[in-house]
Specification:
Shape: elongated
Strand content: 5-15%
Distance between the termini: 69 Å
CATH topology of the largest domain: ABC transporter transmembrane region fold
Number of domains: 2
CATH class of the largest domain: Mainly Alpha
Strand order of the largest sheet: 8-11-12-5-13-14
Radius of gyration: 35 Å
Structural class: alpha/beta
Length: 577
């Protein structure tokens, strides 16, 4: 077990110390009442003196006491289970919430570099595994330790010699359990990592099933899954096999304890040092004393799995968050739309520089089109403007304010963004349109939908604006999803716009209408238009032609065509017969 991980678990448990104390007290009550019953049973046995000579005056009061103790034990056990579940699932709730909060704070580069399935596996599957181990730990580990300590005390009160035999042999089972636990930790960790790989693979395959089917990739996908599944099978079998050795090994040691108690106890009875009832009591104690060792050994192996999962969860929670907003950052900017990029440099990896010495000045209300071949840096520039990524050199200013001196929330409130890749959340049409303006009225929503030419198809849906849509709008066409994304922007009416292939999935007739609507929307608003279909950006105030992370040409459509340069080549190639 890793001490650092255990300390982190204890940190989350610290908040519930009152519940933990109550759990310990209830466990102690359960143990004491359970351990006192064998003494009463022994007294009852000693009250049976022989055939026809049974002392009912002793037996009946003892039976009443046993009944009361059994009832008390049952109540304590019931309350103990409630308390342990309360602690476990509140701790799990805290950890899962902390993990999800961290996902909201992590920079986009973390999401880009880690598979979605891997992240989902940590937040869902690993937390569930940790919950199982933590609950078992509270249910059996602490109760088991108290049972061991309590049994020793009760046995010492009856006979020290037999107690010495029990205590001498039992530590062997702990040694066996500790040895196996060290071996299984690595195996359980490998199991968790492989399970995350499978989750990632399944997430990718389900999310892209149409593409996989179109390219007949099913068999290859199945082969990849089989390979990962086989590795998971091997890792799981190894972890389960070695962890399963613990229980039989400890049971063997415990059987030796029971045999030792029987032999020594019988010898003591023959020589009149203890009664038959006391021997019966000791044999019961021997079982009760060794049982927690079996449970604890099982718990230890389960805890190895839990701690391996906890380590992966804490690794996510402790990931370095994105750089926080400056203390003096402005949070009430109402942008006019003047944007300046000065000597900007950026790269996703240190090995490959993407944008270098990038300079640009955009005046308020200007329409800026960005064109260029794939990988030239168009989308990267959008990421920098929105501060999804931060520049490595140079500066970006809006209305004279450096982006680092504006809160991210305030910055993004000044942008309206429509991307080629649409995203809709599970919920109603209304909830998806009002994502940026939750308090919008029904009239405002309908007006925005009409401006985006989405009102018609929405009214034809079963429940109109209250129609539930599935994850990522699975029950809508791609064009309909894009119209809803455009409706979001129409509703918010921000001072600056970013349109990244905003009409790529819309039919030509609707696209013409949308372009007119955008034309109205963009009046007086600084707009960045990323386009591959160059016919859609001929009316732009300025066209930036990018290549290899730099602006190589700049001007209006007609000017660039007259230059007969790279832009002219791109434009003419789209209309070549």
């Amino acid at each position: 077990m890793k001490k650092g991980t255990i300390k982190k678990i204890l940190f989350y448990l610290k908040r519930y110390w009152i519940s933990i104390l109550l759990s310990v007290l209830l466990a102690a009550g359960t143990v004491i009442s359970t351990l006192y019953i064998p003494i009463l049973t022994g007294a009852a046995i000693d009250g049976i003196l022989g055939e026809g000579s049974v002392s009912f005056d002793i037996i009946f009061p003892v039976l009443w006491k046993i009944g009361i103790l059994v009832f008390i034990t049952a109540i304590c056990q019931w309350l103990l289970n409630i308390c342990n579940n309360y602690i476990t699932y509140h701790v799990i709730n805290d950890i899962r919430r902390k993990a999800f909060d961290k996902l909201e704070q992590l920079p986009l580069k973390y999401i880009d570099r880690n598979g979605q399935g891997e992240i989902v596996s940590r937040v869902v599957a690993d937390v569930d595994q940790f919950a199982d181990g933590l609950l078992m730990g509270f249910t059996q580990f602490f109760s088991g330790i108290l049972m061991i300590v309590g049994t020793i005390c009760f046995m010492l009160s009856v006979n020290m010699t037999i107690t010495f035999v029990v205590v001498l042999i039992t530590p062997l089972s702990l040694c066996v359990a500790a040895f196996i636990a060290k071996k299984t930790y690595v195996m359980f960790r490998h199991q968790s990592e492989t399970r995350a790989e499978i989750t990632t693979h399944i997430d990718e395959m389900i999310g892209n099933q149409k593409v996989i089917t179109a390219f007949s990739h099913q068999e290859k996908s199945l082969e990849e899954f089989d390979e990962m599944n086989t590795r998971l099978e091997t890792a799981s079998l190894q972890a389960t096999f070695f962890s399963s050795i613990t229980n039989p090994a400890t049971r063997f040691v415990n059987a030796l304890v029971y045999a030792g108690v029987g032999l020594v106890g019988a010898y003591q009875v023959i020589h009149g040092r203890i009664s038959v009832g006391q021997l019966s009591c000791f044999l019961t104690y021997a079982n009760q004393y060794t049982k927690p060792f079996n449970e604890i050994s099982g718990v230890i192996t389960e805890l190895q799995n839990a701690i391996a999962c906890a380590e992966r969860i804490f690794a996510l929670i402790e990931e370095k968050p994105q750089q926080p907003d400056a203390d003096h950052a402005k949070d009430d900017l109402k942008a006019e739309g003047k944007i300046e990029l000065s000597h900007v440099a950026f790269s996703y990896t240190k090995e490959k520089e993407l944008i270098r010495d990038f300079n640009l000045c955009v005046t308020p209300g200007q329409r800026v089109a960005i064109v260029g071949p794939t990988g030239c840096g168009k989308t990267t520039m959008i990421n920098l403007l929105m501060r999804f990524y931060d520049v490595t050199q140079g500066s970006i200013q809006i209305d004279g304010y450096n982006l680092f001196n504006i809160t991210r929330r305030n910055l993004r409130e000044n942008y309206g963004m429509v991307l080629q890749d649409t995203w809709l959340k599970t919920g109603t049409i209304r909830e998806n349109i009002t994502l940026g303006k939750p308090d919008a009225t029904q009239e405002e929503i309908i007006e925005a939908a009409k401006a985006a030419h989405a009102h018609g198809f929405i009214k034809r849906l079963p429940d109109g604006y209250d129609t539930q849509i599935t994850e990522d709008g699975g029950n809508l066409s791609q064009g309909q999803k894009q119209l809803l994304c455009i409706s979001r922007v129409m509703l918010c009416l921000p001072p600056m716009l970013i349109l990244d292939e905003a009409t790529s999935s819309i039919d030509t007739r609707t696209e013409i209408k949308i372009q007119k609507a955008f034309g109205v929307l963009m009046k007086g608003r600084t707009s960045f238009i990323v386009a591959h279909r160059l016919s859609t950006i001929t009316e732009a105030d300025v066209i930036l032609v990018m290549k290899d992370g730099a602006i190589i040409e700049q001007g209006k459509h007609e000017e660039l065509l007259r230059q007969n340069g790279f832009y002219a080549h791109l434009y003419n190639s789209q209309f070549a017969v």
